[in-house]
Structures are given as structure tokens and as C-alpha cells.
Amino acid sequence: MCGIVGYAGDKNAVAMLMHGLKKLEYRGYDSAGIAYLSQGEIKVKKCKGRLVNLQNIVSDEIKEEHHVGIGHTRWATHGEPSDINSHPHVSRDNRFCIVHNGIIENYMSIREQLIVDGYNFESTTDSEVITHLLHYHYKGDVIEALFKTIHQLEGSYALSIICNDYPDQVFCVRKDSPLIVGKGKNENFIASDIPAILKYTRDIYIMEDHEIAIISSKLVTFYNSLGKKIEKQTMKVTWDENASEKEGYEHFMLKEIHEEPVAITKTIGPRIKNNEIILDQLVLKRPKKIIIVACGTAYHAGVVGKYLFEKLLRIPVEVDVASEFRYRDPIIDKHTLTIIISQSGETIDTLFALRKAKENNSKVLAIVNVVGSSIAREADDVLYTWAGPEIAVASTKAYSTQLSAIYLLALSFYKGEKYKDYVNQLQDVPKMIEHILNSTDQVMKTASLLYNSKSIFFMGRGLDYALSMEGSLKLKEISYIHSEAYPGGELKHGTIALIEKGTPVICSLTQPDILEKMISNIREIKARGAFVIVITQEEQVEKINEIADIILPIPNVDPLFAPIIAVTPMQLFAYHCSVYKGNDVDKPRNLAKSVTVE
């Protein structure tokens, strides 16, 4: 969730921190703040609200010379968004200042003990206990104090720290929350994610749990969990900095939807040679059982995967929400393949689910976008989606590339008579999506008619139901319209009570074997006054005309591949509804990218 930056170098620290926070604001925008060292004294500037509010406060400091500092953009967990609860937090004698991403689960007991020891608390956050605890343990050695502090903390954290006794250094440590170190020339960096520092360096260190890093303008020093100095290798970032810019699009979300054809090509292209799927880097045997674990949009990709694996491979598949999986007692063993899906590779619930699967001797395959992320490092095998950076909070191209990876994996196991045809159709997917992106007038018109709706329902069967779940999520998270997805046969088991004259229902009809069943379901809701929007292949339009108020056609495609095609008009519909309502499309309320807290 929250975004962290740290800087030590020969440039103006305030300007560098503000640049980094701008690139990380998608991780949280309830408040923002920076701290920097000025003549050996820690100065803090922070405030509630978007980063622009902080920009106005620090405009004078950008003109001055400060060379060491830390910054934070917050997604609120403990304590409401406010100036006081904003990070950074300072110790009582202004010696230490910290920014924190994560949740300290035992903060109340630590807080109570520190109050007994004479410490006063200004905020209601869990993070403030860290800076006072550091002060409590400090006897002149920051590393010693930091190790004693983190040994008391339960939960997850990424910390960046400055101390006025060490005016040229920034300290950092992580556990179950992402943090990287960037190596530059006469400057070094700390950040939650690569875009924050990509303008200045492509050489990064990936930090492991409980490692401590110290940066100055000239040096980067690492200590392992035992307090011993260690050497680490840098990783070179290869993607273009422009990939994290809007490049003329009004919003990142729209840009990323339009990037789907290229992103899918990058996912599948290198892995198909002479019409054969080649996954050389994977060492997988056909499992007896598959469990797919993910959160949010990635979970919906997993639901598509369930239908796909069971249809093509006849292997039993379970799909579970990661936050539930880790707290139940799943039946998994060495014959089970657990597929973990996460765009960032840092989703905390999914990371813990991965560890639970490995504890039960399951083979773990990760489908992730971010190279070197925690999930990628801990999985047995990784299938990278190579989608490039996704900045908008609402995931679009990440979902499409996750589906592409799932199709690659399923077809790599499948050896049926339609194998060659399926591989050909998978390669045709990008141009089909391109066709949809070149003809969006009907989607925009539909959004203009429905953006003021109180509720919009989604309905489908089989793969269409899996697709509907993602369409519904996309709409609710950026347009704030109440939306639910239901299997076509389930609506009449209660929810049809909510259908009244004019209620919009978006129906996916891409599966011919259950087309007549869906048509019957549509007639049931039409009889109650529903306004029906149908997404279907062009060849089905004539048959659907009678029951649909609006039709959003997609290119003719084998029903097996319909979900990866038909999600694009759903994404565009959600996007345009949000635009018509005047919402902040890329930063929807209460949400943030890369969910690194439970």
C-alpha cells in the first residue's frame, strides 16, 4: 500500500523525494510527507490529502540545498487520514524520524509499555511506536537499536529512517513489505517500487526480509538478519521509463487498456515457437490437483483458469481467495500444484498463502508481473507476464496478461486434437482486442446512458460468469456504482427481487452450449423490467437482437478464448462511467495499488 522513498546524494533531496512520491502516489493518497536533514536537524513537512497539497508546502525547500531525506505517501490503516497521522513520525527529542509501510500487529502492547516509560504519542497510528522504540533502544549505535526494535515488532513493515546523529545516511529494513535500493552515481535511493527511481538509475538491489541497508551519497551497505555485513548483486531494470508515463492519454487506466494487445503479445510471443508452446524455464509435471490462490482481479483470472484447466485437462481445480486460504485447512500435498497469481508479486495475503502451500509440500508456480518480487523469489517456478508497469489502481492489462499466462500453461499440458487450433487462436487474441479498441463508440454511448445508475448487475454462465465477476469489480471500484455478478441461473434464487423497471443488467453470451439457457434467464429479467446489455460474438448478434436493448459485439472467437476478448469492453464501460461521473479514475477512493497489508 503506502509508498516510501529515501535519498542520499549530491542533488536537492526535497526535489528528489517529491519526484519519487509522485511516481508512488498510486500506492496511497490519503496523506503525504517528507523529512530531511538541514544542518544536522530533522525537518518534517506533512499534510492530509493528495500530494499536490504537500507540493504547495515544500515549494520553498525545493530551492534550498538538502541532501538526505525520506518521504511517504499514505493509505490509511491505523488512524484516520489527518495531518497528525501523516508520516513521517519523529521521536520525542527529534533524533529519529521514520516512514513505515505495513501493519504492526502488537503496537498496542508496545505503546502501553512506552507510555509507562514516559513516551508521549501524538498520532493514533501503529507506526509512531517504531520511532519511540528506536529512541528507547538507542545507545549510540543505530544498527544495534534497529535490530532490537524489529525483534519486538510483530506484523509487516518496510521502514526508512533518518537520525540526526548520522546526517549523511538513510537506514532501511523490511519484512513482508516491498523495499528496494537504487544505486546511482554520487547518489543512492530507497523506494517501495521501481518507478520512483527509474529516472535516475536502473541498478537496483532487492532487499530480503530482516536485511538492513544503509545508504549515503557514496556507499550502500547491507547487513543480514544476524547483523553481519553482506555483499549483494544489483539487478538491471530493462523496461522503458516512458512506460510509467501517460503518453498523451487522459488517464493511466485508458492507456493501459490500449496497451493490452502489446502486453499480451509480450506474454505469449516469446513462449510460442513454430506453433508450439515452449515453457523451458518451468519444471512442471502434470499434477493430480490444482489450487489457484489470488486476490481481487487476480482471483477472477484464477476463476477463468478453473474452467479452463478442468475443461482441457480434466484435473480437479479449486480457486480460493488468498485471505481465506491461509486461515483454513486446505487439502494439499506434494501431488498438488498451487498457482499463485499477483500483479505486483508483493500482495501480502497471497505471499502468506504461498508459504502455507509450501509448508504442505505443494509445488508452487507464481504468475506475476514484477521481476524479483517477493512472490517470484519464493515460488518454485515463475511465469512472468511481462506486462510492464501498471500505474492505475484498477487493474486492466495485468488481468489480460494473467489470463494469457493461464492459457499458455493450460495449453502446455493439453495435447488434444484441437491443440494447434487453440495455439493459433491464442496468437490471434491481440488483434481481436485491437479491433475492439478501434470501435468504442457504442461502449461510450452505453456508459453515457447508465453512469447515473444506482445498481448494475452482471450475469453469465460458465466462463461468462467468471468474466462477469471481473466486469462487476471494475465498475464498482472506479465508478462507485453498486454492482454484483451472478451466474445466469442464480439470479432468480433471490436477487431478482432487486430487478425493477430500468435496472441495467450486463449479460455475457459467448458460450454457445449454454446460449439458450442464458436467453431464458434474460427473458426472466426482461419480464421484470430489466434494461439488458449483451456482450457477444458478432455471429450471434442477429439471434440476440430480440432480447437485448444494447449489444456490444466482439469479434468471432472460439468460446474458450472469449473471456480474454470480452473483458475489454467491460473495462472500457467502467472507465467511461467513471469519467462521466467526474471521478479520479486512476486513484479511486479508499483504494491503493499493491495491497501489502492484511
What descriptive keywords fit this protein?
alpha/beta; Glutamine Phosphoribosylpyrophosphate, subunit 1, domain 1; Rossmann fold; 3 domains; eight-stranded antiparallel sheet; seven-stranded antiparallel sheet; 18 helices
Overview of this structure, please?
By secondary structure, the chain is of the alpha/beta class. It has three domains: 236 residues, 4-Layer Sandwich (Glutamine Phosphoribosylpyrophosphate, subunit 1, domain 1); 197 residues, Rossmann fold (3-Layer(aba) Sandwich), CATH 3.40.50.10490; 147 residues, Rossmann fold (3-Layer(aba) Sandwich), CATH 3.40.50.10490. It is 34% helix and 23% strand. It is built from 18 helices and 27 strands. It has an eight-stranded antiparallel beta sheet with strand order 3-2-4-1-10-9-11-15, covered by helices on one side. Strand 2 and strand 3 form a beta hairpin. It is globular, with a radius of gyration of 25 Å.
Compact overview of the structure:
Helices cover 34% and strands 23% of the residues.
CATH homologous superfamily of the largest domain?
A: Aminohydrolase, N-terminal nucleophile (Ntn) domain
Overall helicity: 25-40%
Number of strands: 27
How does the major sheet shape up? 8 strands, antiparallel
Intertermini distance: 10 Å
Count, helices: 18
CATH class of the largest domain: Alpha Beta
**What coarse outline follows from CA principal-axis ratios?**
globular
Mean pLDDT: 92
Major sheet: arrangement of strands: 3-2-4-1-10-9-11-15
Poorly predicted regions: none
State the domain count.
3
**CATH-level-2 architecture of the largest domain:** 4-Layer Sandwich
What CATH calls the topology of the largest domain is Glutamine Phosphoribosylpyrophosphate, subunit 1, domain 1
Structural class of the helix and strand makeup? alpha/beta
Q: What is Rg?
A: 25 Å
- The percentage of residues in β strands lies in 15-25%
